[in-house]
Amino acid sequence: MHRTWAIVEREMRRFSKSPMMIVMSMIFPLMQLVVLGYAFGGNVKHLKLAIVDQDRGVPAVKIRELASAVASGARTVDLLDYTDSGVAMTDLRNGIVNGVLTIPPDFSRRLLTNNDPRVALISDNTDTFVSATMAATVGAFIGHLNAPETPVRVSGAAGLDVVEVYPYVPYIQYLLPGSITMSIFMMVMIGGGIIFIDDKARGLHEGYLVTPITKLELVAGFNISGTIKAVLAGAAITIIGSIIAGVPSPLDPVRLLRMMLVISITAFALISLMFLLMVRVSDPLMPRMMFGLLNTVLYFPSGAVYPQQGFPAWMHAIAVVDPFTYSVHAFKSLLLKNTGFGAIAGDVTYLLIFSIVAMTAATALFKRTL
Amino acid sequence: MSNAIEVREIVKKFGDFTAVSGISFDVKDGEIFGLLGPNGAGKSTLIRMMVTLLTPTSGTAIINGFDVIKKADDVRRSIGVIPQAMTSDLELTVYENLLIFAKLYGVPRDTRTRLIGQLLEAVELTQWADKPVKNLSGGMRRRVEVARGLVHEPRVFFLDEPTTGLDPVSRTAVWEMLRKIKAQRDLTVLITTHYMDEADKLCDRIAIVDHGKLVALDSPEALKASIPGRAPETVTLDDVFVHYTGRDLRDALQEPSAADSPFMIRR
Predict the structure, then answer these.
(1) Which residues on chain A place their C-beta less than 8 Å from a C-beta of chain B?
(2) Cβ pair B118, B110 in contact under 8 A
(3) What is the pLDDT of residue B252?
(4) Which residues make beta-bridge pairs with B159?
(5) pTM of this structure
(6) Which residue spans within chain A are E strands per DSSP?
(7) ipTM associated with this complex
């Protein structure tokens, strides 16, 4: 075991001389957290809605009033009046407006005679977020048009009350667990995979291989040192990211302790995976190429940016074996819900089993000769 | 005198290519043994099999009484190796490089402090002990490697082209230090080199390898005397080398080294 610690000592001495490595591993996840968090986190506002009123009756005026209320209140839409539906359609196709609400000439008459009155929303569906928001907004104020003038004191209709268990979670906080996992992965790749292969290519490993160190001692040494580096990166981004994202009580010691446990196990799982993938690699291009590939294959299916319930079956299959999935879930439980170990026991168990299997396979595949 | 190294009909094949073809020789305890040969002759492959970095296709070598195939770990404990590539960690200091390897060999704490001090003195790097290896010259780096290879007091020391690429002064310094360390310790040295004059001065016996085969083996004097039609005092080891290996240039393609990759972080 003393040989394992010699490898760990060597790696940590090198690491202490390259503090930029930890900064490098944090820049990308932090930038992603801030840019994606604020880009996707806000409500969609100021969509340009063209109104073509061909009716001009009282109900049509009421629709325009309701639309104006949204435009001046929630500011989801900005209204633009058009008299010519052809011009409005041209502007829609040219991207000048995001949707065209057409009130047909017979709308008021049909409404008053209860004869299936309809308005049309023509939207630019190349942007699904925008068209969905537009449809929901227009649908809501059309719904108000149908509401009775004087609400009944006690309604007989079934209603729904939504009770949120946790305080409001902005999207930037939702992204934070994925960013922590990403920073651990970045350090594993930069401080583990790339340096491991570069050292191998330079011939540094020949120096180790002529000593009596065993395969297990060598792999364990690299794994432990890689884990320590990744834990430092993960811990740093947990604190910095929590402050940036506005997580309540970011320095809560009990939660930090639980976070450190999950960070450590995640780091060990990812470094074990990395060594399993790199154990027979000698070309320095390989880890750099795999960096981008693994980033996509592991990060996006994990549920870090989008709920897994929306995934197709093949992506679900990746998510089930992806260690990011369990890491992100555990971090979400601790950061967003402040749960105890009960909620993350399954995640921790999977990551531990994953680490043991990957490290055992990496040791078996490690070549003791050149 | 017993043998420190016994090589028996050792063969190494890489696919269809035979790099080493049934070589046998012995190196006596305390000898400085030179292994010479043109580029691609099989010297490095031979040395790599003796230090357990490559597994022989057939045959074997006994180092310090241990079989390189059956008792590889015992072989590793009893030898010091300076591979052809620079294997010291450039980021670490001279002292840290020696310390890590002393720990890898399990040298006890009190012994390693003394040994590292002695070795730094022997290779004249005591005043540079706290400097990162990356700041040292090529010759100084090689001296670090020599000290590192001896940090666990091995009985046999393998050096694969330790002076290649060094200027004449640094080369002389490395050989002088080897001679000095050899005088202080019970050490057998097996060395490969392209510098005939150095091999002539330092080695007790020399083996010449060509095309993976042993073509000559004797003391430098006996090898010079073996050249027909010339007085031994007029013969140099260069003449011996050319006599046994010929004058043909050994042009050959080789597998690209991973170290040549443009994607590596430069240091």
Answers:
(1) 2-3, 5-7, 9-10, 13-14, 17-18, 194-195, 197-198, 200-204, 206-214, 282-285, 288, 368-370
(2) no
(3) 57
(4) B82, B191
(5) 0.83
(6) 47-53, 77-82, 99-103, 120-123
(7) 0.87
